Target: Probable nicotinate-nucleotide adenylyltransferase
Amino acid sequence: MLSSHKYLAPGMTVGLLGGSFDPPHAGHLHISQEALKRFGLDQVWWLVSPGNPLKAAGPAPIARRMAACRDLARDPRIHISDFEARAGTRVTADTLAALQNVYPSVRFTWLMGADNLAQLHRWGRWREIMARVPVGVLARPGDRIAARLAPAARIYRHAMLKAGEAPLLSRAEAPAWCFLNVPMRDESSSAIRARGEWRG
Model:
């Protein structure tokens, strides 16, 4: 059974933050809480991936990453999910299709940092992602200009909500996206691993 979220009412708005979370850090928590506040979301799910197909080295075991996420995310609106592992999906387009099949009455919004928007056109079936769900983009330090000039931003400029319309994003019909400049914490999983503070 793929459904594991008991407290979902029809029409609830859920932001999806995907990643390896290897390890999770304060930046993940900050971006989630900003998204909850600014995009009118009821919940945010951290979709802990089995592994990133774009990375050669595998992450730490998913059970360890899930446990670390639960230790960090004490906000009751943030839920830790291994949906991708249970559904057997590896690319975002497939994950979204599976989620919408299991939770047809939930309104999902895909969340990403501006660095991901800059490379979104390299993702598998990325136009399908834009067609399926609204996308909320939160700027990280140094990524704003590159993200705004990215192919995805140019192609879908007509579907961009203004910053003042951000609370409407979670109920907008796709394609729709919103780019927000927010104070971000300049932390990364790779930096934590490089310091030897997390071992797989």
